């Protein structure tokens, strides 16, 4: 009998995308090829405490994205999974010997502390191979300003933008409007899932939007509002990555909000493959692969674009651990390109092991 590879799945995490991560982990565990892989699950609570979970039954309210919680031995009846500082250190101490026994980790975590290089640095320090981008690629893609700087340097197109730093340089609405036009998108630089993102077309809304974005980050990005379509493409590979067909997100409201992404199934429609001319699809594929390599990505990433009314492509962002439920765009794009959800997970694990060899 072939020895199974021991896979550790990390889920939850300290970001606002905690619950999405639990859903991603649940789907991965259900689909992973159990003939090849033996699974251990580690939950990270919102304060950073670690706990080993039972892979067969680790979630409360697994089918309700806004209620979902992981179950620790001590909280089987309660919803609380937040540890004190003392419990936190103790919890990591308990998890470390179990982690040391793992062959490869899937950090199924989104957003700050999960997708931004910090957990990647921790795993690297432990000498554990893991799925996805390394520290540098993760950190660069997490920061919307740094991403744009790298892309601009590689002559890849991005929208016009300005930066605001808390308590120092914050452009006035007039300054922003002069450069970027009357309608603006204001976002925390290091966040995801549309958390803290607002659209503003007057000074009052602009100030409110800045206040909200600054609640999440010290650095805020102010962008021109792009009128056009939201297209995306999924990338898989290390030094020789492949791209999928093109997908489209069609938000039913003002923009693709947190609610539309995860809570409201009516909030957006996905079209895979998107109806785009073949030259646009080919251009997107080339640009996304170039962006992936320039941003030092490995394993996986989803590259999101705008297609303007004049058929100009702009890269909006690169997500290094995009939503990974079986109905998320990343797996759906691969499915439409001939890679099943189960095979996608196997391939990502193989790529993680290859990174280290
Ligand atoms: N400059 C922009 N112009 C038009 N719409 C935008 C712009 N920036 C963001 N949006 C809308 O807001 C959503 C969230 O913004 P995004 O940059 O993708 O942040 P996140 O990392 O939170 O997903 C996008 O999917 C899109 O609908
Ligand atoms: Mg986005």
Write the layout of secondary structure elements.
Elements: E1 5-12, H1 18-31, E2 37-44, E3 50-53, E4 59-60, E5 69-70, H2 85-100, E6 104-107, H3 118-126, H4 135-142, H5 144-153, E7 161-165, H6 173-180, E8 184-188, E9 198-200, H7 203-216, E10 219-224, E11 228-237, E12 242-251, H8 258-263, E13 268-271, H9 278-294, E14 299-308, E15 313-319, H10 329-336, H11 341-355
Parallel strand pairs: 1-2, 1-6
Antiparallel strand pairs: 2-3, 4-5, 7-10, 8-9, 8-10, 11-12, 11-14, 12-13, 14-15
Magnesium ion binds at residues 304, 317.
Structure notes:
This protein has 3 domains: 5-130, Rossmann fold, CATH 3.40.50.20; 141-157 and 227-339 and 346-355, D-amino Acid Aminotransferase, Chain A, domain 1, CATH 3.30.470; 161-224, Dna Ligase, domain 1. The chain has 11 helices and 15 strands. The protein has helices spanning 18-31, 85-100, 118-126, 135-142, 144-153, 173-180, 203-216, 258-263, 278-294, 329-336, 341-355; strands at 5-12, 37-44, 50-53, 59-60, 69-70, 104-107, 161-165, 184-188, 198-200, 219-224, 228-237, 242-251, 268-271, 299-308, 313-319. Strands 13-12-11-14-15 form a 5-stranded antiparallel β-sheet. It has a 4-stranded mixed β-sheet with strand order 3-2-1-6, with helices on both faces. The radius of gyration is 20 Å and the shape is globular. The site of magnesium ion has 2 residues, from loops.
Looking at CATH, the homologous superfamily of the largest domain is ATP-grasp fold, B domain
How many domains? The number is 3
Named at the architecture level, the CATH assignment of the largest domain is: 2-Layer Sandwich
Main sheet record = 5 strands, antiparallel
Tell me the series of helices and strands, N- to C-terminal.
EHEEEEHEHHHEHEEHEEEHEHEEHH
- Number of β-strand runs: 15
What's the helical proportion of residues? 25-40%
Mean pLDDT: 91
| Cα-based radius of gyration, to the nearest Å | 20 Å
Chemical compounds bound to the protein: adenosine-5'-diphosphate, magnesium ion
Give me the side-by-side strand order of the main sheet.
13-12-11-14-15
Distance between the termini: 24 Å
Q: What is the CATH domain class of the largest domain?
A: Alpha Beta
């Amino acid at each position: 009998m072939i020895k199974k590879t021991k896979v550790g799945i990390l889920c939850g995490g300290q970001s606002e995308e905690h619950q999405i991560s639990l859903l991603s982990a649940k789907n991965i565990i259900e689909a992973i090829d159990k003939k090849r892989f033996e699974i251990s699950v580690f939950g990270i609570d919102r304060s950073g405490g670690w706990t080993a979970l039972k892979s067969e039954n680790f979630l409360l309210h697994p089918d309700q994205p806004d209620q979902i919680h992981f179950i620790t031995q001590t909280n089987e009846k309660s919803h609380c999974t937040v540890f004190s500082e003392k419990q936190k250190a103790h919890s990591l101490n308990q998890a470390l010997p179990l982690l040391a026994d793992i062959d490869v980790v899937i950090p199924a975590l989104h957003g700050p502390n999960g997708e931004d290089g910090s957990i990647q640095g921790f795993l690297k320090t432990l000498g554990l191979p893991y799925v996805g981008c390394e520290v540098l690629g993760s950190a660069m893609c997490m920061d919307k300003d740094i991403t744009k700087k790298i892309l601009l340097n590689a002559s890849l197109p991005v929208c016009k933008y300005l930066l605001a730093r808390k308590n120092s340089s914050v452009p006035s609405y007039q300054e922003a409007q002069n450069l970027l036009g009357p309608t603006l998108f204001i976002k925390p630089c290091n966040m995801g899932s549309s958390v803290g993102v607002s659209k503003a077309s007057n000074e009052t809304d602009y100030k409110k939007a800045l206040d909200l974005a600054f609640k999440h980050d010290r650095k805020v990005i102010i962008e021109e509002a792009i009128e056009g379509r939201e297209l995306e493409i999924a990338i898989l590979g290390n030094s020789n990555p492949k791209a999928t067909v093109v997908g489209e997100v069609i938000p039913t409201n003002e923009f693709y909000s947190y609610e539309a992404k995860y809570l409201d199934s009516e909030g957006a429609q996905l079209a895979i493959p998107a109806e785009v001319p073949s030259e646009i699809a080919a251009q997107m594929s080339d640009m996304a692969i170039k962006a992936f390599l320039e941003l030092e990505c490995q394993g996986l990433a989803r590259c999101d674009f705008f297609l303007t009314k004049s058929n100009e492509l702009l890269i909006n962002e690169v997500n290094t651990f995009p939503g990974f439920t079986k109905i998320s765009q990343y797996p759906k794009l691969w499915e439409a390109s001939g890679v099943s959800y189960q095979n996608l997970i196997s391939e990502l694990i193989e790529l993680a092991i290859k990174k280290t060899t």
